[in-house]
Amino acid sequence: MFLFTLVHGLPSWLATHENHSCLSISLAPQLQNQPFDCCISLLHDPLLSFALPNRYQLIDFGNGRKLESLAGRLVDRPCPAAEHVAPRIPDAWQDADSRFDLDSRSWHHRTPWPDDIRIHVGDEDDATSDLHSCDVQSDLKPGIEALCLPVEPTPFGHIGVFPEQAENWRWLTQTAPPSDTPARGNQRQALNLFAYTGASTMAMASSGMHVAHVDAAKPNVESAKRVAVINELQTAPIRYLVDDAVAFVQRELRRGNRYHTIVLDPPAYGHGPGKKRSTKTTEKRPAKQAQAWRIQRDLPLLLNNCFDLLTGRSFRLLVTGHSAEMDEADVTKFIKKNLLGRRIGRLQPQFETGRMSLTDAAERNLDAGFFVRCWLNADS
Q1: At what angle are helices 218-230 and 199-206 packed, to 10 degrees?
Q2: Which H or E run includes 39?
Q3: 215-224: pLDDT as tens digits
Q4: Residue 119 carries which DSSP code?
Q5: How many angstroms from the chain centroid is the CA of residue 380?
């Protein structure tokens, strides 16, 4: 049997085990006032069974916030999906090292933020199962190419990475064209739009894809370059582009470029990098991007243009989002209506859709947006 000891003061609550015939449980103060069934679920949860100093862990959520462990550092920050639900371990929140205040839009650190915090995603132990839960059955092999992702507080309350995307990173890695696929026909070309700090870019580059990394914010692109260095991908064929996603896609269409894989993670709303100069083009592909992005209004047009960028009869398309205005059903319906019949004849693309989520220490799932995966491999 195992000897579990939950030690107060450790963000991940260290647990040790020995080969004894009895089960000894010592509850930390955070758990002493919790219902018995909650304590049992916490004891059996892998996040609390072992200290994970270089992992991401969702500890608790509620009252519009979430409590996370970033390589052992406890962080308390806003989370709209956690509204109208109560935390399960309220005492644990008192130990937060950093807290983002939504009213003042500023971070407050109980202890200085370390210069170099990194979380590891995917290795021989298949650590991605600690990060996420997706409501879709997958035939993918366990484990993904390991990624090392730096985390740091941003002015918007983010941490520089979205751990709920871990299953999508695995999908991008394991469904990539074989390494011996000829470069002709653009079968190794990938486009990452709204690419942020580049975890999806690194997942694709690590599987041999040539990636165009596009984000409107220069700090995000610079961060992606640092992530590449950390993961020894500084010489990988990645183009880093500070650009508006809509405008970039329009130019790629005019250039005649095509991509086997296109990844989009658009915000619900946002602003481009600046005013675009106008050029003559068709109504379908307006040359001037509106300053304010609205996903419900602008994503359909962008997707239509992306369909024209996809290569022939073998491609992958990944769309994720966190908007209340559109969900996986809306995106899937649009893709099926507008993609079918474009150079693929009677072939039917395959789809996987669902909700991304993170699992906390009490085994509750926190919704983290939708995903839609669409692919066709007619050449295999």
Answers
A1: 40
A2: helix 36-44
A3: 999 999 999 9
A4: E
A5: 29
Q: Token pair of 154, please?
A: 């941003």
3-state secondary structure (DSSP) of residue 249: helix
Query: Rounded CA gap, 141 and 68, in Å?
Result: 28
Contact of 82 with 366, CB cutoff 8 Å: yes
What is the secondary structure of 218-235 as a DSSP string?
HHHHHHHHHHHHHTT-TT
Specify whether the CB–CB gap between 155 and 105 falls below 8 A.
Answer: yes
For residue 351, give the nearest of 360, 368, 339 by alpha carbon.
339
**Phi and psi at residue 100, to the nearest 5°:** -100, 125
How far apart, in whole angstroms, are the C-alpha atoms of residue 72 and residue 54?
Answer: 7
What are the tens digits of pLDDT across the range 241-270?
Answer: 999 999 999 999 999 999 999 999 999 887
pTM of the predicted protein model: 0.79
Nearest 5°: CA angle at 263, between 258 and 268? Answer: 125
- Reported as a single tens digit per residue, the pLDDT across 186-200 is 789 999 999 999 999
Distance, CA of 359 to CA of 28 (rounded, Å): 21
C-alpha closest to that of 373 among 330, 322, 332: 332
Q: What is the mean pLDDT of residues 362-373?
A: 97
Q: Which of 2, 18, 136, 160 has the alpha carbon at shortest distance from 77? A: 160
Q: How far apart are the first and last CA of the chain?
A: 49
Is the distance from CB of 28 to CB of 7 less than 8 angstroms?
yes
**More confident position, 41 or 267:** 267
